[in-house]
Amino acid sequence: NRYYFNSMGMKKNSKFTVGFTLIELLIVIVVLSILGVVAVQLFSSVLQGTNKAQVIVEVKQNGQFLSDTLERKVRGATDATVNLDIITLTTPAGTEVIQFIPPCNGCNPKTNGKITINGASVTSTDAVTGVDVTTTTFSLLPIVEGLPKVIQVDITLNQGVSASTRRDFQANIKLTNTYSLRTY
Predict the structure, then answer these.
(1) Is the dihedral angle over the CA atoms 72, 73, 79, 84 positive or is it negative?
(2) Coil, helix or strand for 73?
(3) SS3 assignment, position 154
(4) What pLDDT digit, counting tens, does each position of 82-105 carry?
């Protein structure tokens, strides 16, 4: 028989003891620790996926805006010339210059590469949340008599130069589009 003392200090006889053994307590602690680790990993995974999606959306939105703007400008032009990373458009309102300005990683602070129209940036230039235009190729496709000029634009966009460098946050998008002038 086992004995224990109640709150009044009286000795009582009992077959069962009250409380938990050390082994039971350790098992509960281990199980709760495992559940905690799993919960933290799950939360971390969801957070990483959300952040990666936000970075990709930002880069895609900038790419789409850039593509739409270039299409509108080229289609409104009456003539175009291409010289390396510069497109010069002749429009009824005058001349417009589309230019690629490469990133400056050696600068302090670092700056994103960008596409400008008459000196004004078309892409987001914020070094953390914006986009970095890393490469461009502007080319005038071979001219076919009787058809308008066609310009091909190849652009590579990345997340901003000062954005997170973690592998799971990387975003890289390559855009290739052709735009034809409307020479009516």
Answers:
(1) negative
(2) helix
(3) strand
(4) 988 899 999 888 999 999 988 887
Structure tokens at 66: 């850039």
pTM, entire model? 0.70
The tokens for 48 are: 């990483």
Highest mean predicted confidence (pLDDT) among 9-13, 79-83, 144-148, 164-168: 79-83
Is there a contact between 123 and 132 (Cβ–Cβ < 8 Å)? no
**Cis (ω within 30 of 0) for the bond into 109?**
yes
The Cα-based distances of 103 to 88, 142, 182 in angstroms read: 21, 30, 32
Which amino acid, 85?
A: D
145 vs 8 pLDDT, higher one: 145
- Are the beta carbons of 130 and 157 closer than 8 angstroms? no
